[in-house]
Write a structure and sequence with these properties.
19% of the residues lie in helices and 17% in strands. The chain is α+β, with helices and mostly antiparallel strands and 539 residues long. Helix 1 packs across helix 7, helix 5 crosses helix 7 and helix 8 packs across helix 12. The chain is globular. The two termini are 25 Å apart.
């Protein structure tokens, strides 16, 4: 199966323009009005409404739950499994032991949030937080759907192998690769002074700058800035000596992203994604998308001699499947162990050993029979939920401004990275090692992403490697459903750290390989910029 997008066009409309008026001689009694007829060729995706094929939710976009519809063609048994997963997705976990509701315990001991929905509100993006008036920064707490990735800077890694631990990031000693800013009551040794604090306090503030268009109009852009204190591994007067404060430590903020359409993305044939890669920019167009090759916990579990797969999910395409992504977040973001990730996120650290000793070893991550906090059934159902959320249908496809915007989307070369369409795999295919539902197979989909990494410039860089992705690179985000973002969550933002309040702002942050397209967008008239944004908002 090959992807069918090669900037094909289709006749979608005819525009009539004024021509000359003939036959108006002084003695004539009639005239012929001969107007020139011009055919307008629109991109082939201009009038596509069902972006997920038959896995599209039609008429589900008029409320705040436009991202929360199951694929309409699931079987009765699959729908039952999906709905069970929906319940798990909203489950708010508690500290262990919870004798009244043992199925809910296991939170932490350090974590970023208590349930999936807090970072993926209504299955969409998390809220971008505002710093209260009169304050210069905000302490991240339960309302935050953002956290910090952390790692030791060890240079680039281009070819995963057993010798380089498959290009995994090197964790910060005593911390790991994710900073947990929340904790259960006694997570820390100084819990009486710092109850419910995780490995550190994380604060958010913003820097502001203006972007000026060639026509003189301006847009104010904001950039998040994160600061850290209260680090658990050193005393208050020795904070600069913390392992996390050393010069070779890299940080990367990660905002919660939408979870619909993920099963479809996983079923895009690998060869179709790789066919779009141009790592050496052989065509000299300034665009050099490339894949991220990442460690695959499922292959490792199954004793694959090279447990490496194409990265598809996450801001830097750092996970290979919905299963690895979902269960990794269950263990990481919430501290809930599961069969794929049976160890606590901070296992082996001084913090964890101290916590276990302090609390009588009642929260080890497994019970007396070796069972993890989330069992196999829970894990399968919550993963299936994320795999089978339908893609919302488009709106306003016949609007003249939207169609004009589609032409501009092509003109300024947005499709060089935001590849419109693919066809998902058919036959005997799997998702995360399990048989894929028929509802996801052979679908003509329009995610508007090439699923590859691109250098997006210094302004967006987090300067942190993630497997083979560099600190300048990000995976092209799918655009389907993006126009419903604020309908689902009015406080949601765009980009990896939520810095952009609007589509326009997100475009203006583009740099690197997208610099030319950003400059072309800036060079459009205000009316044309509105048309392009209208098209994106229709997706």
């Amino acid at each position: 199966m090959t992807n069918f997008n090669v900037n094909k066009t289709r006749m979608l409309g005819i525009a009539v323009v004024l021509g000359a008026l003939y036959g108006c001689g002084s003695g004539g009694s009639s005239s012929d009005d001969k107007s020139q007829v011009v055919e307008v060729q629109y991109p082939d995706y201009t009038l596509v409404e069902n972006l997920g094929g038959s896995a599209t939710a039609v008429d589900a976009s008029d409320s705040g739950h436009g991202f929360s519809t199951p694929i309409p063609t699931l079987t009765e048994a699959e729908l039952e499994k999906h709905l069970a997963g929906d319940t798990h997705f909203e489950t708010s976990f508690t500290t262990a032991p919870n004798e009244e509701h043992p199925e809910l315990d296991g939170l932490g001991p350090v974590f970023n949030n208590q349930d999936c929905n807090s970072c993926h509100q209504r299955d969409g993006r998390s809220s971008t937080l505002s710093v209260p008036e009169g304050q210069d920064k905000l302490l991240l707490g339960s309302e935050a759907g953002i956290f910090l990735r952390i790692s030791v800077d060890d240079g680039e890694c281009s070819t995963p192998s057993a010798d380089n631990n498959y290009c995994k990031n090197v964790g910060v000693p005593g911390f790991g690769t994710q900073l947990f800013h929340r904790g259960v009551l006694k997570a820390r040794e100084d819990w009486q002074d710092k109850p419910f604090i995780g490995q550190a306090n994380v604060y958010l503030s913003y820097q502001y700058q203006d972007f000026e268009y060639p026509d003189g109009s301006t847009v104010t852009l904001k950039k998040p800035v994160f600061t850290i204190d209260g680090l658990y591994d050193v005393s208050e007067d020795q904070q600069e000596n913390s392992a996390l404060k050393q010069a070779n430590i890299n940080f990367g903020p990660r905002n919660g992203m939408p979870v619909f359409g993920l099963g479809l993305l996983e079923l895009i044939p690998e060869q179709d994604i790789l066919a779009l890669a141009d790592e050496d920019d052989s065509n000299n167009d300034g665009i050099s998308g490339r894949p991220n090759w990442v460690y695959d916990a499922i292959k490792d579990r199954d004793n694959d001699p090279l447990p490496v797969s194409l990265g598809r999910f996450g801001w830097k395409a750092n996970t290979p499947s919905v299963r690895v992504q979902s269960l990794g977040a269950l263990r990481g973001d919430m501290g809930i162990t599961n069969p794929l990730f049976p160890d606590e996120s901070i296992a082996g650290t001084a913090m964890h050993e101290s916590y276990l000793a302090r609390t009588g070893y009642v929260d080890t991550g497994v019970d007396e029979n070796g069972n993890t906090e989330a069992d196999q059934t829970f894990s399968d159902e919550v993963v299936f939920y994320a795999e089978t959320l339908a893609v919302p249908g488009r709106r306003d496809i016949n609007n003249a401004e939207v169609k004009a915007g589609a032409l501009l989307f092509e003109k300024i070369n947005c499709t060089a990275c935001h590849t419109p369409g693919f066809v998902t795999a058919s036959g005997d295919v799997t998702l995360g090692g399990l048989a894929a539902p028929e509802a996801l197979k052979g679908q003509e989909i329009y995610p508007f992403s090439d699923m590859l990494l691109h250098d997006m410039g210094a302004e967006l860089a987090d300067n942190r490697r993630d497997f083979t992705a560099t600190g300048l690179e990000w995976k092209t985000r799918p655009l389907w459903g993006i126009g419903l973002t604020k309908t689902v969550n009015p406080a949601a933002g765009f980009l990896h750290d939520g810095r952009a309040d609007t589509i326009e702002e997100a475009i203006l942050w583009h740099g690197g390989e997208a610099q030319n397209s950003k400059e072309a967008f800036a060079g459009l008239s205000a009316a044309e910029r509105d048309q392009l944004v209208a098209f994106v908002m229709s997706l």
